Predict the 3D structure of the following.
Amino acid sequence: MPNFVRKKRLIFSLIVFSLFFQPEVRASTAIHGILSKIAEAINMVINDGYSAQEKKYLDEIHKLRERYSTDTLKIKNATVAYMESRFSMPHHPWGELLFSLVRKLKPKSFLELGTCIGISGAYVTAGLEMNNKGKMLTLEHFLPLVPVANRTFKDLNFSRAIVLGGEIDSILFKAFDELAPIDIAFDDHIHEEKPVLKNFDLIYPFLNEVAVYLFDDIDHNVEMKRAWKNIQNDKRANITISLALGVPYMHHKDYDGVVRPRIGLVIIDKKSQEKRHTNLIIDSVTPCNHVYFNKNNLSIANNF
Ligand SMILES: C[S@@+](CC[C@H](N)C(=O)[O-])C[C@H]1O[C@@H](n2cnc3c(N)ncnc32)[C@H](O)[C@@H]1O
C-alpha cells in the first residue's frame, strides 16, 4: 500500500479514536452517528477528499474570493476587498470544513449569525446546493453588508441562502419562524461572552432534538475563551470538541497572543444525559489565512 494512503488511513483512525474512545464514554446512537459524520468531514478537509463536483463548487467560491480581493466597492469606509481579507473565513481549512460538515450532516436548516459579505455562508450553501436539500438563514446587523452578501449568493447561483438584516435580538425570532427546528447553528458574529451565551440560550429551544452548534474563534479573546468554557460546562451541550486544524501560525493583533485558530463544535442530543469534552488538534494542515490580503486596503480599513 502506498505510503500516503497509509498516512491518510492513520490520520482518519486517529480522529475517530480521539472522538470516540475515551474510557468513560458510551455515546448515544444519535451522537455516535453525528460523531462519525464529523470525523468524515474533518478527514475530507485534511486529505483533500473531494469529488470532482465538490471541487468545482469550492473552486467557484475561490474564484469569487479572488475577484473580491481587488473589489474596491465601498462599504462605509472599507471596501469589499478589505471585508474579504479581514473578516471572512479562510478558504482552507475553515471554509472547507463548513462545506464538508454540511455535505456529511445533510442539514435541512442552517442558521448563521454574522453574515459579513457572505463568504462562510457561501461554503455552507455550496454544501446545501450539492445536497439538493436544506436552506440557510444568515443574520447581519450592519445593513450595508446585506446587498453585498446577496450579490455573493447570486453570483454563485445559490438559491438556498436567505440574508436577514437587523440587530440579532430583533430578527432572531423571525429566523426561528422561518427555520425551526434548526439542525446546525453557527455563531460567528460579535465575539463577546454575553451575546454568545445569550444566543445559545435563545437558540437552544429551537434546535432539533439532535443538532450541532458551532462557535467560531473560540480563542479570539478572553471573552470568547470564557464563553467557550461556559459552554463546555453546560449540561445541554452533550459533546463539546475544541478543534484545531494547523499549527499555531501567526500573531494577529485581534487575538490575545499567538494564534492557533480553533472552532468549537457542540453536539446536542436533547434526550441524552451524556457530557464530555474533547480537544482535537490536527497539525498536518497548512491554513491559507487571508491569502488574498492586499495591503493597499489597510489604510481605508483602519477607519472602518
Ligand atoms: C467575523 S464577521 C462574520 C464573517 C462571516 N461569517 C464569514 O466568515 O464570512 C462578524 C459579522 O457579525 C456582524 N455582527 C456583529 N454584531 C452583530 C449583531 N449584534 N447582530 C448581527 N450581526 C452582528 C458584523 O457586522 C460582521 O459582519
